[in-house]
Automatic annotation (TrEMBL):
PANTHER family: CYSTATHIONINE GAMMA-LYASE-RELATED (PTHR11808:SF85), TRANS-SULFURATION ENZYME FAMILY MEMBER (PTHR11808). It comes from the Bacteria. The lineage of its organism: Bacteria, Bacillati, Actinomycetota, Actinomycetes, Kitasatosporales. Its EC number is 4.4.1.1. The keyword Lyase applies. This is Cystathionine gamma-lyase. NCBIfam families: PRK07582.1 (NF005758). It is an enzyme of class 4 (lyase). GO terms for molecular function: lyase activity. It comes from Streptomyces coeruleoprunus. Its cofactor is pyridoxal 5'-phosphate. Residues 1-26 are annotated as: Disordered. Belongs to the trans-sulfuration enzymes family. Pfam families: Cys_Met_Meta_PP (PF01053). Transmembrane segments: none annotated.
Length: 378
């Protein structure tokens, strides 16, 4: 039985481990090195600490095994953060005069990226994620950026359909897979050229480090991304890389629990009449469910919904005892926030983005229902 036949749990606990060596730990510890012994001709792989590090190498192999099981042509590059990974793809691939298509409802910092791309003479077009609306603005594009499910609105687009149209138009396709993680969706298998993620979120899952990665199958594209990392120096620390690798072993356990909790929470919220605008792609009657079910293996840990107004949302967040009021998502401890407090997303004042952690779903649902009752009492 080859590695491509393994289940996710088996693959995750073994991912990226080097060949066993007597007296060495299964996962070698972080290598702290600015430079390596290098007598004579400076040949690789390890010469200078900004270029390569053995701890990154192990992590990159591990992530690659999750992104494209059984495919050893996949090349993964890890970065200091999700934004470093996103910037590496966009700024290494696009040139002045190119057209890039971004979602208009994606991660907040994309608006800043857009300004920077435009300052470099790149034309940026945007369209919503839902309804595959980016199809309408693909003409002449060099690169299509997809974020599905989108953060925070949880809309979903049909990756295979967008990839087919983009490739026909001569555009590369990158998918921000942060919300789903490779256990929820594998963009490279859906045809994308780049699978990109902030591993700060569900991938590492403990809310204690920032990290990002880019995976692709084309060695030339991968080399461009790796070169960009060397130029800007957006490299992860060895300790972060090692912690991330250690965390990957429990990704299937965490994701299973978090997805089950998210579905339980969404089902409970669906029965409340003080909750509107409920979105979770795993709910059978969610507008995204049919498309999501065709490309996702798990529907993620984030649920979004709307309470009457800003005050109700704030009372709700205050009344929660198992859920921290914090941004970010995907961690083992549930978090929630009133997204409108940032001002960047087009969301109602009472919009809540809720990230379901690894608590027992019954405890979490009880806490949420209690907090909703408190919020309704004025
Ligand atoms: C958080 C996030 C990012 C940015 O990641 P950092 O690790 O914070 O730099 C990018 N895309 C999505 C969808 C995110 O949620």
């Amino acid at each position: 039985m080859g590695a491509q036949d393994w289940g996710d749990g088996t693959r995750a606990v073994r991912a990226g481990l080097p060949e066993p060596r007597k007296y060495e730990p299964p996962l070698p510890g972080p290598v702290f090195a600015a430079h390596y012994h290098l007598p004579g001709e400076p040949t690789g792989p390890y010469t200078y600490g900004r270029d390569e590090n053995p701890t990154w190498t192990h992590l990159e192999r591990a992530i690659g095994e999750l992104e494209a099981p059984g495919d050893d042509t996949v090349d993964t590059v890890v970065f200091a953060s999700g934004m470093a990974a996103i910037s590496a793809v966009l700024f290494s691939q696009l040139r002045a005069g190119d057209v890039a298509v971004l979602p208009d409802d994606g991660y907040q910092a994309l608006a800043l990226v857009r300004e920077q791309l435009e300052a470099y003479g790149i034309e940026v077009r945007t369209a919503p994620t839902g309804g595959d609306a980016q199809l309408a603005v693909l003409d002449g594009a060099a690169l299509l950026w997809i974020e599905t499910p989108s953060n925070p609105g949880l809309d979903v687009c049909d990756v295979r359909r967008l990839v087919a149209a983009a490739h026909a138009a001569g555009a590369l396709v990158a998918v921000d897979n942060t919300l789903a993680t490779p256990l929820g969706q594998r963009p490279l298998e859906l045809g994308a050229d780049f699978s990109v993620a902030s591993d700060t979120k569900g991938m590492t899952g403990h809310g204690d480090l920032l990290l990002g990665h880019v995976s692709c199958r084309d060695t030339r594209l991968a080399a461009g991304v790796r070169r960009w990392r060397k130029i800007v120096g957006a490299i992860p620390g060895p300790m972060e890389a090692w912690l991330a690798h250690r965390s990957l072993a429990t990704l299937p356990l965490r994701i299973e629990r978090q997805c089950a909790g998210a579905l339980a929470l969404a089902e409970a919220l669906a029965r409340r009449d003080d909750v509107t605008g409920l979105r979770y792609p795993g709910l059978p009657d969610d507008p995204s469910h049919a498309v999501a079910a065709g490309q996702m293996r798990r529907f993620g840990s984030v649920v979004s919904f709307v309470l009457a107004d800003r005050e109700s949302a704030e009372r709700f967040l205050d009344a929660l005892t198992l859920v921290d009021d914090a941004t970010s998502f995907g961690g083992v401890r549930s978090t929630a926030e009133r997204r409108g407090r940032w001002g960047g997303d087009a969301v109602p004042e009472g919009f809540i983005r809720f990230s379901v952690g690894a608590e027992d779903p019954d405890d979490l649902v009880a806490d949420v229902l209690h907090a909703l009752d408190v919020a309704a009492r004025t």
